[in-house]
Specification:
Layout lengths: L1 E4 L11 E10 L7 E10 L6 E4 L11 E3 L2 H7 L4 H12 L8 E5 L33 H11 L4 E5 L47 H20 L4 E4 L18 H18 L5 E2 L10 H7 L8
Parallel strand pairs: 5-6, 6-7, 7-8, 8-9
Antiparallel strand pairs: 1-4, 2-3
Helix pairs in contact: 2-3, 4-5, 5-6
């Protein structure tokens, strides 16, 4: 069976199109929620743009979703309870888009109010001072509001950075400033301590590797105690980028050592069923994944 779906947006006026007037709302740096009449043109051609074969399964799509972060929850607080409920319903309720996946940062991200981790006490290898208390006021309430509407929402987590004391430059960021050659960034990092993009920003030493694995385990367990199951964990966000906000680069060989010799065994020891996924890899060369998977000497059997 074959179904034809034709989707085409055209700029300009053509004789072969049927026009429909709609209102588009947008927000700019100077004005909020301005309305504008725009014309949507439907092409008269019968040539299909997208073909869907319903009797041939090529890949499985787990679902779609969005990201939870501190700034997002703060923005929702500016709305009345009624309006906030409408926004959440439009995202997670049965009558909305019904998101089935949710991503949450492990501690700070570039959309948090500031830099923080769950343990900023230097060289606390036993994680005695580990705490998610900050998340109990922002991220956890945000996620729980979504779970009220979508109890089966599957959560996955990823850190933007390890605690600063576990990194080679002992800073949350990789660079002092600059996004693609610009001078943006005010993180007070000495430029002499910038980390190159093709090296590992983590301290590849026994104590730090063990501590970081324990850090992740405590995170999953702490969220579970607060009513949130972390189904999947990706050990590093944007694994190959060095921006001037929370980040950490990993060579594939070093990440394989951490995942298979430390993180995996720690999860097994603590009887955690959270899956460890490879990602999020913002590197176009597939050799990164191949190199990671080829580290057979470190693979958990």
């Amino acid at each position: 069976m074959k179904k034809i779906i034709s989707l085409l947006f055209v700029a300009g006026v053509l004789n072969t199109v049927a026009a429909q007037k709609i209102t588009m709302y947008s927000t700019t740096a100077s004005e909020r929620w301005t309305s504008q009449k725009v014309t949507v043109l439907k092409h008269a051609s019968q040539t299909p743009e997208v073909s869907v074969y319903t009797d041939s399964l090529l890949q499985h799509v787990t679902g779609f979703g969005g990201t939870f972060n501190e700034i997002g929850w703060n923005a929702l607080q500016s709305l009345s309870q009624e309006e906030r409920d409408k926004v959440m319903a439009s995202l997670f309720a049965e009558e909305g888009v019904r998101f089935s996946l949710g991503r949450t940062p492990v501690a700070c991200s570039d959309y948090s109010f500031g830099y923080y981790s769950y343990n900023d006490v230097k060289d606390d290898y036993t994680m005695r001072n580990f705490s998610i208390d900050r998340d109990r006021f922002i991220l956890i309430p945000y996620i729980k509001e979504a779970l009220k509407l979508r109890p089966d929402l599957k959560m996955w987590a990823s850190p933007w950075t390890p605690p600063a004391w576990m990194k080679v430059n002992e800073h949350y960021s990789q660079k002092s400033s600059g996004i693609e050659g610009t001078d943006i960034g005010h993180n007070r990092l000495d430029p002499a301590r910038n980390v190159l993009g093709n090296v590992t920003g983590f301290k590849m030493q026994q104590g730090y590797l063990q501590a970081y694995a324990l850090y992740f385990s405590k995170y999953v367990q702490a969220y579970k105690k607060n009513g949130i199951t972390i189904s999947m964990l990706m050990p590093q966000n944007e694994i190959a980028w060095t921006p001037c906000w929370p980040s950490c680069t990993w060579r594939a060989e070093d990440l394989a050592i951490f995942v298979t010799q430390y993180l995996g065994p720690q999860f097994k020891k603590d009887s955690l069923d959270t899956e460890i996924w490879m990602g999020t890899v913002n590197y176009p060369n597939p050799d990164y994944i191949r190199t990671f998977l080829n580290q057979k000497m470190y693979r958990i059997m």
